Amino acid sequence: MKEELLEESFCTQFNPGDVRPLGWLRSQLEIQASGLPGNLDRIWPDVRDSQWIGGDREGWERVPYWLDGFIPLAWLLDDADMKKRADRYVNAILERQSPDGWICPCGEKERGRYDVWAAFLICKVLMVYHDCTTDPRIVPAVERALLNLRKHLKSFTIFNWAASRWFECLIPIYKVYEVTKNAYLLDLALDLRTQGTSYDALFEDWTDTEPCGYWSFRAHVVNLAMALKSMALYGRINGKTEKGVEFAEQMYSKLMRYHGSAIGHFNGDEVLSGKSPVRGAELCSIVEEMFSFETLYALSGKGVWIDRLEMLAYNSLPATTSPDMWTHQYDQMVNQMACVKIHGNTPFTTNGPDSHIFGLEPNFGCCTANMGQGWPNLARSVFLRRADGVVCGAIAPASVSFETGGASVKIALATEYPFGDSAEFVVSVSNPVEFSLYVRVPGFADSARIDGREVQPGSVNKIRRLWDGVAAVKLDMDFHAAVKDRGNGMCVLGRGPLIFSVPVPERRVMHEYIRDGVERKFPYCDYELFPDGEWQYGFASENFEYVRNDFGKFPFSVEHPPVKILADMFEMDWGGRDEFNGYVAERYPRCSIPKKRVRVALQPYGCTNLRMTEMPRLF
Predict the structure, then answer these.
(1) Which residues is 339 bridged to in the sheet?
(2) What is each CA distance from 45 to 51, 53, 516, in whole angstroms?
(3) Cα separation of 203 and 54, whole Å?
(4) Of 204, 230, 352, 601, which has the highest C-beta tally within 10 A?
(5) What is the reported pLDDT for 2?
């Protein structure tokens, strides 16, 4: 392939050190640093004693997954101790890179059997570290790894996870190419495209008959969440980025049509599992779909991808971890009135009986390692860089600092969104300078105004001016609470990007034990959550009252949520499924005859452990 320039993205990320989380977002990142993702190198053998750093534990995806969130978190928080710990891992990985460039921890004779998905991932992670540090060792090390990978593919075809996730390697390929302009990197991209799964061909004739009752790579929910961005990423080479983004829309629409849930994600308890609110969604699929949405927005500038990102970030992501982020679920249910180990038949397609309890590593440990990328990548998506200025992506409190036109610029976004209805950009410059500020208006808004001027919900508005001193740009939004139809008489309550649920009172049972040499002890032990109060309701009217509260210790607190919606509900007979010990709700209630009418306080989905979300409309 001849040397050529890549097609430009609409915008690109700032380095993590240029971004500072503020307000509730900073609190959330600090909670993550104090919780499981910030401490796996201290407590979890698969990271603490990994083969990546010379130990004898897992030497495949878990350390790269963990570093993918831990490294940007350290620089976003400017935490010296976390930076030092990240440095230790990166130094160990670079020191163990083979002279021929092979970078993964396995012997030369084992390379043919080694799934090089881990090579894709560690190269991506090292380039994130380079974003943070500009370490001069990184680009040459990653280029050697990619050159070795190109040679490796001449003898060994990619298989399993690497074949399903080939496009993830395009991220480090492009980053290194932009520095070196070595054309062989684009040849490697073509080799990966040729050997990997063709999702465009798969989805050309894809229907609801696609396998969702047994395990397969092509129906695996995480693979599909990642693959949404596959053709758009490859489009940077063949000049078809726009077509790739169109494919992503078609793929997402099909997945949501047949497997979509109320919170904007497609169900997959390991593999695709239909639209039932009592099927699960794997945590890895949530953070990977978030990253796909972030990538698609950067490539296209289409605000709908950030709308979808916010749905996941402000609903699914916080709900699938405990508020202190010391435990997490493997599978999360939209209607989840209990989280207990299930003896006998499970409601899951291929996952085990502990998949929806909260713990250190329920079912599989991939989510334990991978959960940490969600919030740091969201923080990096608040402000994005464009040639002529700055683009606002996700709305969350944060600031960014940069240089342009000989001036130092800082933009701070003050907001309580998604709990509040306004956002103010404060722009400070060291001396007068002209640049553009692109303000995205969420598509969830009923109406919106920028500095009092009406703007279209879902639009991205360019504000080009000569900035001087300190100036503010105010975005005001109007939202209303409404029930949204889910079919078969079921619906959900939403307001803006937030979905609201009936919080189910819980009785918690803690389990501390050791299995396979891995200790579970407080605060990273396992918890079963049993229902300890009423949870069987249906909507009785559209008489909704939105109530604001102060932020508590946790932004997504179960006990003290920052907002509630008071709603008229009917108590009713829902029933349970006896084959699942009576602790998984039916998809539909057994009897839709209302009983007593009551006023119930619903909470944001992300502020619940146990919840009922998709409920019948009884009016």
Answers:
(1) 529
(2) 10, 12, 10
(3) 42
(4) 230
(5) 44
Question: Which pLDDT tens digit goes with each residue over 355-393?
Answer: 999 999 999 999 999 999 999 999 999 999 999 999 999
Reported as half-sphere exposure (CB side, CA atoms, 13 A), residue 275 has a value of: 17
- Listed in order, strand segments (DSSP E) in 323-417 are 331-333, 383-386, 389-392, 398-404, 407-415
Instruction: Return the biggest CA–CA distance within the chain.
Output: 73
Cα–Cα distance for residue pair 218/95, rounded to 1 Å: 36
| Main-chain dihedrals φ then ψ at residue 521, nearest 5 degrees | -145, 160
Is residue 212 over pLDDT 70?
A: no
Cα separation, 253 vs 274, whole angstroms = 14
User: From CA 398, how far away is CA 412, in angstroms rounded?
Assistant: 6
DSSP 220: B
How far from the centroid of its chain's Cα atoms is residue 409's Cα?
29
Q: Which residues pair with 47 in a beta bridge?
A: none
Measure the CA–CA gap between 24 and 242, rounded to whole angstroms.
Answer: 35
Q: Which residue has the tokens 């010990």?
A: 581
Per-residue pLDDT, 221: 96
Task: List pLDDT tens digits, range 127-148.
Answer: 999 999 999 999 999 999 999 9
Q: What angle do CA 206, 210, 214 make, to 5 degrees?
A: 155
Q: What is the pLDDT of residue 525?
A: 97
Which tens digits make up the pLDDT trace of 318-361? Answer: 999 999 999 999 999 999 999 999 887 788 888 999 999 999 99
Chain position carrying tokens 């009884």:
618
Number of CB atoms found within 10 A of residue 312's CB:
24
Distance of CA 44 to the CA centre of its chain: 22
Cβ distance 188 to 150 under 8 Å? yes
Residues 6+ apart with CB under 8 A from 596: 570, 571
Class of residue 546 by CB neighbours under 10 A (exposed 0-12, middle 13-18, buried 19+): middle
Q: Give residue-wise pLDDT tens across range 537-566.
A: 999 999 999 999 999 899 999 999 999 999
Task: Supply 274's token pair.
Answer: 């239909």
Helices and strands (DSSP H and E) totals, the chain? 19, 29
Alpha-carbon span 584 to 339, nearest angstrom: 9
Based on its alpha-carbon atoms, the radius of gyration of the chain, rounded to whole angstroms, reads 24
- CB burial string 218-255: b at 16+ within 10 A, e below: bbbbbbbbbbbbbbbbbbbbeebbeebbebbbebbebb
